[in-house]
Design a protein that fits this description.
Largest sheet: 7 strands, mixed
Strand content: 25-35%
Number of helices: 3
Order of helices and strands: EEHEHHEEEE
Number of strands: 7
Helix content: 10-25%
Shape: globular
Structural class: alpha+beta
């Protein structure tokens, strides 16, 4: 477990820019299920764009990218472990639980407030998921900007 403080980046629909700390809207995701909450972000703007690419459609509403300040978060560091970055959606759609849930469930049991993990398609980039969005842990760190840049 490590303690992390720094700026992270999150991409949201522009209509949700006034709620940058809202947890993921999907009831299940890579590292949350069964009513668990999670906020997904990346350590770089580039990483945020890579992470959301799978979910972007041509007719989507406008999006923005926002910086968030994380302070003293206790994180399990799972970077460099390819098994953490599997494409979980296809397995889950076939009726299986996501294999990535075992990692987040274990981290939650050990008292972690979130995880760091490598991008599946660009392992040199890192993402973060927080299980808790408390004000002392994460807060807005600047204005939203259009995403993708130039849009």
């Amino acid at each position: 477990m490590l303690t992390f403080s720094g700026i992270v980046w999150r991409i949201l629909y522009q209509a949700r820019a006034d709620r940058p700390l809202s947890p993921a809207r999907a009831s299940e995701g890579r590292f949350h299920h069964s009513g668990q909450t999670a906020l997904y972000a990346s350590l770089t703007p580039e990483g945020a764009g890579v992470a959301i690419r799978r979910y972007v459609g041509a007719d989507d509403p406008p999006r923005v990218i926002l910086p968030l300040q994380v302070t003293n978060a206790r994180l399990a560091d799972l970077r460099g472990r390819p098994e953490v970055s599997v494409i979980w959606q296809d397995l889950h759609a076939a009726g299986a639980p996501s294999p990535t849930w075992t990692f987040s469930d274990q981290a939650r049991r050990e008292g972690a407030q979130g995880l760091l993990y490598s991008s599946r398609s660009r392992p040199e980039l890192s993402h973060l998921v927080l299980f808790d969005c408390a004000a002392d842990l994460i807060r807005p760190a600047g204005a939203a900007a259009p995403w993708p840049p130039g849009s």
